[in-house]
């Protein structure tokens, strides 16, 4: 918001310069963006009176003017075509300086001497965005005769500063000159001066010209206040009015529109003027739009309305989109004779949704969507009527129509002074608190142990005691509150057990050379086809997003394998020769379909790798990880029913009759789907089950005192028998003296019968109580050989 300081001074006495004012307002909560000087470095530009205009002898597009500038008459050559003899215009004399460092010199134009320059508004440093359209490309013609030779800065008010503020959404009352004047008054402890509103002459009765206002949707229109002005004369506004608007960043249009904009800037209440002669039946209806109803707005665009849009309508059609923009058909034009002046208050949410739906943001919608005090309607409308009367733009008709279905009342809040000091951390006496709140126009009544505070209706952001305490704090000055160290006792909390286990797993995996990755929790439903999940797989039952970013992110994952495969594919196709990755993340299992409650989230560890690795490398990573987490004695069981993995190269990890997860080589068809040309190995583990089974507390035992004895076991048996089954038998009959069983050879070849394999183990025997003798070990070893031969129909290999 742009705030001209000299306009602000109409309402409050300011005894500091603009820089100090900005600093003080910033400290009291109004954020200053910039300070601009209106002067723009203009020097030696005065009012000139054009006495004569004649043709240039050597140029068709130039003319020669004789201009009276006070002490002399100057010949000035110009290309302007909007000037006439008798006009009063800005003249830059020889030696003058204009914005941008431009210096005016005596010169010759096509052989004719020129002693200065006639100026446009843009040449005087006024932005093209606010210059009246009829003066945008020409010399600025002053609205009346001013003393010749008078400094143009005095005429146009090009002195003082404009402060730009960033107004937060919770303070819509500050989107006005009066609102910022109230802030200034409280900040500087200076008396606020409101404009005196008085309409001196009223003629006729409003009911003779306007049949009424009917609010059909009372939830969306809090108030509709209307007045009528007759004998309207549409013309350019007085210069003072135009300059006020331009300084505040608004382009002047005509006297009626300019006054509505002026009052909107002054009080923050948007107004709208209708050509009453174009209102069918001379009656206003405030209603929502009918199905497929359309309106042509004043910007000339045909807009199809939504049934939720609130409109101002006559007996036939909409004439405005409420709170957003007026209609083209009832716009005030040069032929307008009678206007209906609307000051209304609309539901903020309704205006915001309508503005967004039509991609139509205006000064009015920007204010209404933040919320406006409905009690402003009367003040703003009568202020506009007063200004119309003052500049002679029309005659105010007697009477008003005020339809006020949702009256806004003053609220009352109890405030405890001791609570103020406790929250702010400073001692402010009760009188100071009362003075601060009264300065903000709160009405404070002192009770026994509290203050009864009546909140003015324009302070829509103040609802609770803490809001009042904030008001006291910001005016007192948060910078005046001394810094104090925090006091209190902090209790050191222990880290959750699951976090401890997860952190340890991460350290182990990173120590093994794996890189942690993080992927999105939502995937494409086609991902399940890419990893060849069977159609009846429970993992295809997933949570679907209502508003997905796109099909590729439309369901919540029930497995992390597609994410890892995407990542490995991307790296492989970028030329990365080797990748070892892992992710610990959530999968989302719906409790029921269709979904009625939040899904079950399970922590899952997924490992993916390719390059200089194989199945046994992945197996080794898993074994080291589980061992470090205190899970030992787990075994592998063959898995041949998962089409994602290579048959015969996939295994479940089983511990305490629970499946911890699965590891395996990815099926070649899946690799083709991901354009990967090398083997990929994946492990997916239920990390929540791992957390349940983990035992991070290691128990150490002394180094063995007694020597070990090593015996080998080599048998030939069916190739389909898992090695782990043989190991189970070995451990079962080891009678507690086996320390380690290690597979060191698996052979299939010419010397082995077809469909058979040779498996060789190294078994280490040791007792922690005595030295084992050969006969003790031989007895146990022979029993193991016997049980292996009997259980698996194996033959001892010689």
Q: What is the percentage of strand-forming residues?
A: 25-35%
Radius of gyration: 43 Å
Spans of at least 5 consecutive residues with low confidence: none
The CATH class of the largest domain turns out to be: Alpha Beta
How many E strands?
40
Mean of all residue-level pLDDT scores: 93
Number of helices: 20
CATH-defined fold name of the largest domain: Phenylalanyl-tRNA Synthetase, Chain B, domain 3
Look at the helices and sheets and give the structural class. alpha+beta
CATH superfamily of the largest domain: Phenylalanyl-trna Synthetase, Chain B, domain 3
> Based on CA inertia axes, which overall geometry fits?
elongated
Taking strands numbered 1, 2, ... along the chain, how are they ordered across the largest sheet?
28-31-32-36-35-34-33
Number of domains: 6
| Ends apart, CA distance between termini | 97 Å
The CATH architecture of the largest domain can be named as: 3-Layer(bba) Sandwich
Helix content: 25-40%
Please outline the major beta sheet.
Answer: 7 strands, mixed
Task: Explain what the structure shows.
The chain is an alpha+beta fold and 798 residues long. It folds into six domains: 2-38 and 161-188, Phenylalanyl-tRNA Synthetase, Chain B, domain 1 (2-Layer Sandwich), CATH 3.30.56.10; 43-156, OB fold (Dihydrolipoamide Acetyltransferase, E2P), CATH 2.40.50.140; 202-403, 3-Layer(bba) Sandwich (Phenylalanyl-tRNA Synthetase, Chain B, domain 3); 411-480, Phenylalanyl-tRNA Synthetase, Chain B, domain 1 (2-Layer Sandwich); 497-693, BirA Bifunctional Protein, domain 2 (2-Layer Sandwich), CATH 3.30.930; 709-796, Alpha-Beta Plaits (2-Layer Sandwich). It is 25% helix and 28% strand. The protein contains 20 helices and 40 strands. Helix 6 (255-267) packs antiparallel against helix 9.
């Amino acid at each position: 918001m742009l705030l001209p300081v000299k306009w602000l001074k109409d309402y409050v006495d300011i005894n500091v310069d603009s820089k100090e004012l900005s600093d003080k307002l910033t400290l009291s909560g109004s954020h200053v963006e910039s300070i601009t000087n209106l002067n723009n470095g203009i020097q030696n530009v005065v009012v000139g009176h054009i006495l004569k205009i004649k043709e240039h002898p050597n140029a068709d597009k130039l003319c020669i003017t004789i201009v009276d500038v006070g002490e002399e008459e100057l010949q000035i050559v110009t290309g302007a075509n909007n000037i006439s003899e008798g006009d009063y215009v800005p003249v830059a004399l020889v030696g003058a300086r204009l914005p941008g460092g431009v210096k005016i010199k005596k010169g010759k134009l096509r052989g004719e001497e020129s002693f200065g320059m006639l100026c446009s508004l843009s040449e005087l440093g006024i932005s093209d965005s606010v210059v009246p359209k009829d003066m945008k490309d020409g010399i600025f013609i002053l609205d009346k005769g001013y003393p010749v030779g008078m400094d143009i800065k005095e005429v146009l008010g090009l002195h003082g500063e404009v402060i730009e503020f960033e107004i937060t959404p919770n303070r819509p009352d500050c989107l006005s000159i009066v609102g910022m004047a109230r802030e200034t008054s409280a900040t500087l402890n200076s008396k606020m001066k409101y404009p005196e509103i008085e309409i001196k002459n009223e003629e006729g009765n409003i009911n003779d010209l306007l049949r009424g206002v009917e609010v059909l949707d009372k939830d969306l229109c809090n108030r509709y206040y209307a007045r009528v002005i007759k004998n309207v004369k549409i013309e350019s506004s007085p210069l003072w009015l135009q300059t006020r608007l331009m300084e505040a960043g608004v382009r002047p249009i005509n006297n009626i529109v300019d006054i509505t904009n002026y009052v909107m800037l002054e009080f923050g209440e948007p107004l709208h003027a209708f050509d009453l002669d174009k209102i069918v039946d001379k009656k206003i209806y405030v209603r929502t739009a009918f199905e497929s109803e359309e309106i042509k707005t004043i910007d000339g665009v045909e807009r199809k309305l939504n049934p939720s849009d609130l409109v101002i309508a006559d007996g036939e059609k909409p004439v405005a989109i409420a709170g957003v923009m007026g209609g083209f058909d009832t716009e005030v034009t040069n032929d307008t004779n009678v206007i209906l002046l609307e000051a209304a208050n609309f539901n903020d949410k309704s205006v915001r949704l309508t503005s967004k739906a039509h991609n139509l943001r205006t000064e009015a919608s920007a204010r209404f969507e933040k919320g406006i005090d409905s009690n402003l309607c009367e003040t703003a409308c009568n202020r506009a009527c007063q200004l119309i009367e003052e500049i002679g733009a029309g005659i105010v008709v007697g009477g008003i129509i005020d339809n006020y279905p949702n009256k806004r009342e003053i609220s009352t809040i109890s405030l405890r002074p001791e609570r103020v000091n406790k929250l702010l951390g400073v001692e402010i006496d009760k009188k100071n608190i009362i003075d601060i709140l009264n300065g903000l126009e709160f009405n404070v009544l002192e009770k026994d142990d509290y203050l009864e505070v009546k909140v003015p209706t324009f302070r829509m952001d103040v609802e609770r005691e803490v809001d009042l305490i904030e008001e006291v704090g910001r005016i007192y000055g948060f910078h005046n509150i001394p810094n104090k160290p925090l006091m209190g006792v902090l209790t050191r909390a222990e880290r959750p057990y699951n976090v401890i286990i997860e952190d340890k797993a991460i350290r182990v995996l990173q120590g093994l050379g794996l890189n942690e990755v993080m992927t999105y929790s939502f995937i494409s439903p086609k991902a399940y086809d890419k990893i060849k999940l069977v159609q009846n797989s429970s993992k295809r039952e997933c949570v679907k997003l209502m508003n997905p970013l796109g099909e590729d992110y439309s369901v919540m994952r029930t497995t992390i394998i597609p994410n890892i495969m995407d990542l490995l594919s991307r790296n492989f196709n970028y030329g990365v020769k080797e990748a070892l990755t892992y992710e610990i993340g959530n999968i989302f299992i719906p409790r029921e379909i269709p979904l009625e409650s939040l899904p079950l989230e399970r922590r899952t560890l997924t490992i993916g790798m390719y390059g200089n690795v194989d199945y046994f490398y992945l197996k080794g990573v898993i074994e080291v990880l589980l061992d470090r987490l205190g899970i030992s004695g787990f075994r592998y069981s063959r898995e041949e029913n998962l089409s994602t993995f290579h048959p015969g190269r996939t295994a479940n990890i089983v511990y305490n009759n629970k499946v911890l997860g699965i590891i395996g080589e990815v099926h070649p068809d899946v690799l083709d789907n991901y354009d990967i040309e090398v083997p990929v190995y994946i492990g997916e583990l239920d990390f929540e089950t791992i957390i349940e089974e983990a035992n991070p507390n290691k128990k150490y035992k002394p180094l063995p005192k007694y020597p070990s004895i090593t015996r080998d076991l080599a048998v030939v048996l069916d190739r389909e028998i898992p090695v782990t089954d043989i190991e189970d038998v070995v451990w079962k009959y080891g009678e507690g003296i086996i320390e380690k069983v290690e597979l060191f050879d698996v052979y299939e070849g010419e010397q082995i019968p077809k469909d058979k394999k040779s498996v060789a183990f190294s078994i280490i025997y040791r007792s922690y109580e005595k030295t084992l003798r050969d006969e003790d070990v031989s007895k146990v070893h022979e029993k193991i050989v016997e049980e292996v031969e009997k259980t698996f129909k194996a033959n001892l290999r010689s």
